[in-house]
Sequence to fold (244 residues):
Amino acid sequence: MAASGDLHCSPQRERQVREALEGVAQEADLLLLAGDLTSLGEPEEGAALARICAEIALPTFAVLGNHDWHANRRDELVAELQGGGVQVLEGGAAQLEAGGHEVGIVGTKGFVGGFSGHSHLDDFGEPMLRALYREAGRDVEALQRGLQQVALCPLRIVLLHYSPTRETLVGEPDGIWVFLGNDRLAAPILQHEPDLVLHGHAHAGTFAGAIGEVAVRNVSMPVLRAGYELFELQPRGHASAALH
Fold:
């Protein structure tokens, strides 16, 4: 499986992104994209990435990131991506056979909120702040539902944009962690123990972290310093990563 995030694709960056993903079809059975697929969420930016993914011709799953929502043209953007064979998961789950194994993929963007013992957004105060808290809660609920849907899959992967753990944010300024993820996403992960959790968003963060025994990997391109990361998943639930 290959994973990447924060491609920030656009017509101007199309060649750069194509070169970054070159060869992935020869190395992987599946491609997962952890949000910020585009620079500003414009449909023509999605079309540029769709052209690349159509050429790669791997089963490709993605979640949207904050950049992908910037233009507030979600429906048009998703339609362009789907035209290139990219399945966008927004609080949903997908199951497929890859590499001879049944794989369950649960995808949702995640949201801001912070972490206990650090900057942390609570359900208190002005209505606008409480609305942020509720929005984050909807992603937590979606993650819970998705993990229930794929509970019987031998291999289960969670795909996010925002981080569910502080460990993969180390390297980012402490003051912005509240905008890079939230620890409420960790509860369904701890309960269901998927085989691997992937996210992006934290460009200056850390590659490897964990929630309990579950491996969490920050696959933001700036962190990887490469176009993608390769993972080999075994049905027993053990994940091993090899840098590309």
